[in-house]
Fold:
Amino acid sequence: MALFSANSIAAVNNSDTRIAGCFLTGIPGLEHLHIWLSIPFCIMYIAALAGNGILICVILSQAILHEPMYIFLSMVANADVLLSTTTMPKALANLWLGYSHISFDGCLTQMFFIHLLFVADSAVLVAMAFDHYVAICSLLQYVTILTSKVIGKIATAALSCSFNIMFPSIFLLKRLHYCRINIIAHTFCEHMGFAHLSCSDISINVWYGLAAALLSTGLDIILITVSYIHILQAVFHLPSQMPAPRP
Structure:
């Protein structure tokens, strides 16, 4: 399936990206297999919606599951549903129908929510690691530490940090001058793919993207690793066997 004709490429190249929008090529080099590739993508999307949806409904409907661990698990499920919904409908429209066009603002919006949800998902995983640490290393204080108020603050902090990290990227992209062919070699819009459409200097975008990755995902990985190291240390220091009862 040919997605772009020579005339359409030339027309896009000679127009402003802010007006003409962008084109997502799908999976580069596999355009002839897009119809077949859309089938597993669709199955995975439906499975993600069904699995996470059932998990969320079960946690909400069962009062016994209104515990920190399950609340954090429902947050991860919600983030996964929103993340897949942000990317897959447009990707399937591209793979099935060859509808690859997306507006400039639509691409910015998709890019923002993809990165926002990814960073938020990573932050919730840190919260789950902290929950496991408290449950194993400070079991007697578990109920007093992870109260509903604290969980609400953790959720608010995860969303706030994710928003504050990713929001500046919109302005960093809007300040650029776009004059090249408006083709993103991907199934969805992402920060550097968008920035490479510009003929301006994108060094600030590169450094910002690197800093955002290190301050969000990189730091989260370190925190998760540290928490599980402490958990393993606590487990290894447990008595190897219970003392035998005295006669």
Summary: Residues 20-236 form a domain with the Rhopdopsin 7-helix transmembrane proteins fold (CATH 1.20.1070.10).
